[in-house]
Design goal:
α2 crosses α5. Helix content is 65%, strand content 8%. By secondary structure, the protein is mainly alpha-helical.
Length: 127
Amino acid sequence: MRLAARRVGAFLENRLIPTGLTPAQFSLMAHMAASQDDSLGALAKRTGLDPSTLTRNLQVLARQGLVEIAIQDDSRRKLAWLTEVGVRRLAFALPVWREAHAEISALIDVGLARSLAESTAILEIGA
C-alpha cells in the first residue's frame, strides 16, 4: 500500500509542477477555500493535520504570498485565509488537479480505490 501511495503521490506531484504547488499544498488550500471557518483549529480538524504540522505548512504558503495568518484579538485563536494571489493560484491548479485525477481514474479502477479508502477508514487515529 505504501508503494501504491508513493506512486500516486509522485504522479500527482509531477502533474502539479506547472502550478508551483505540491499535492499537500493544493489540498490544504482547497480545504481553506471550501470552508467558512478560517480558524487553524477547524482547519486542522478538517485536514487531519496536527496543529504544528499545519502551522509549518501554512508558513510556507504565507512566505509565497498565497495565504495570510493572523491572531484574533483575544490572542487565543489563529486564523488563516487565502490571499488574492492564493485564490488565483488555486483556480489555476484546479483544472490540472481534475485532469490528473481523470488520468488516474482511467488507469486505476475507481471502485478499487473507493473500497480501499472505506475499508481502511477504521485505521484512522481516533476512530
